[in-house]
């Protein structure tokens, strides 16, 4: 079964919240653009334009809105492989054309809507790609202006969160959490990871709706645990131990993971004890994130080996039905 890219999942789960995306546009788009768009009209579209071979590197979202009292779109591209693609402007041109073609095919519109491209970047490396299509065209800058007007060209909005200071990260709590994590997880430093978690918990504690805070916390923990990082089991234990002091009793996921690490420590590597702890955690997480676990499936889970159980726990957010879990175990 295909496991969704953790960057893509985290990006889409968070920015699909219209309140978060509206706040992001309000705080990070250039003011002249903010002044022209009706933030209350923003609607997330289901379309994605990333080809299969590029989904490991990019995620995207398309937002429909009113722009200067006309129909328009904001197309947001997230680059999440820690290095800039030199061809981003060309990629964006292709995506813009696809958006327009879809509009023509569906509605036979007499005129095309304006689409403003936005790129979000986070990396230790500096953004080195051309910021306009014209910069990529040999000799474009040497052409007279009256000739340049015949050559396709546009700029995109680049939002590079890599070097933001804490005080520069603005917006509602959920948005601050997202951008803080994007900024700090690129360094591959466990010290920065703990710092980011501490600050994220502080932001989430400011939310009036603590149920929403818990949901964001669990999304965040899933994201961290699924990243391709050299985290040891002790690192994972330290993360959960740090988090459970704040949200332990109110988060099923934190409770389950904390229980797993404690049980493993108590058993000190005894196979039977570890397997039972893993099975208990697996059942609890399936119940929380998929559906109640039938008795028959519970019995089957207790018969699985440690490797299978750990794999289910690691990929719990990829399952949507009980049948998928049964198939995975078979």
Automatic annotation (TrEMBL):
InterPro entries per UniProt: Rpn/YhgA-like_nuclease (IPR051699), RpnA (IPR010106), Transposase_31 (IPR006842)
Superkingdom to which the source organism belongs: Bacteria
One GO term of the biological process aspect: DNA recombination
Similarity comment: family membership: Belongs to the Rpn/YhgA-like nuclease family.
Protein name: Transposase (putative) YhgA-like domain-containing protein
GO MF, one example: double-stranded DNA endonuclease activity
Domain Transposase (putative) YhgA-like: 5-210
NCBIfam families, per the entry: T_den_put_tspse
